[in-house]
Write a structure and sequence with these properties.
Blueprint (H helix, E strand, L loop, with lengths): L16 H4 L4 H15 L5 H15 L2 H12 L1 H9 L1 H6 L11 E5 L4 E6 L8 H4 L4 H4 L1 H9 L1 H7 L9 E6 L5 E5 L11 H5 L4 H5 L17
Parallel strand pairs: 1-4, 2-3
Helix pairs in contact: 4-5, 9-10
The structure holds fe (iii) ion (FE).
């Protein structure tokens, strides 16, 4: 596990200074509002998750999904992504604050990667947008390190016992993106079709990308 050097003063308006210094004015307003409303007890984190999801439609995980889909379709790009994620991701136009030093973690049939920031909420904004409330919660941050398999199960992700789960601790200098395994039954799919399958949670590592064959009914209603 990496260690953080940054200050974690949690007084209102002063927490996560190392992060807010990287954010746009709009990001800072959103975060300040969120902290204020939660601390005052005016809103439920679940309601804020909705707000954040709206925000994510602009700057959110659809960016990361495009990166993943391209890696699934283009072996040379995938190798570049695994070797120098920052440059490969920037080549698609996704760069900037929170993405200065990216590392991509490839899931395989035997290794599943999951990302956390144990001390606060460091997160790869250019590819995933703002983190969900649970990512910033103390229970996730502490429990995923101790018992990742149980935490994943709570996300509905039940990995075979022989799959090794590796937990990676983000920090203000280094941010991770999980490259999920390409699901079955997607042969011949375009990058655009594939990107639509890739979820935020799969790129954090708290879930996998399910095969569309498992959702055939839902897609035709
Ligand atoms: Fe952090």
């Amino acid at each position: 596990m990496g260690s953080h050097q940054h200050d974690h003063d949690h007084h209102l308006g002063h927490d996560h200074d190392h992060e807010t210094s990287h954010l746009s004015p709009e990001d800072i307003r959103v975060r300040a509002l969120e902290s204020l409303l939660i601390d005052k007890g005016y809103v439920e984190p679940a309601a804020l998750d909705l707000l954040i999801e709206t925000y994510e439609t602009k700057v959110g995980p659809h960016n990361g999904a495009k990166v993943v889909a391209k890696a699934w379709c283009d072996p040379a790009f995938k190798q570049w992504l695994l070797r120098d994620a920052t440059a490969a991701i920037a080549s698609m136009g996704f760069s900037g604050r929170g993405g200065e030093h990216m590392v991509v973690l490839e899931n395989t049939p035997t290794v599943h990667n999951v990302v956390v920031c144990t001390l606060c909420s460091c997160y790869p904004w250019p590819v995933l947008g703002l983190p969900p409330v649970w990512y910033k919660s103390a229970p996730y941050r502490s429990r995923v390190v101790i018992d990742p398999r149980s935490v994943l199960a709570e996300f509905g992700c039940h990995l075979p016992q022989d799959v090794r789960i590796k937990v990676w601790d983000s920090n203000s200098e280094l941010r991770y993106l999980v490259l999920p395994m390409r699901p079955d039954a997607t042969e011949g799919w375009t990058e655009g079709q594939l990107a639509a399958l890739v979820t935020r949670d799969a790129m954090i590592g708290t879930n996998i990308v399910p095969s569309p064959a498992n959702h055939a009914g839902a897609n035709h209603e």
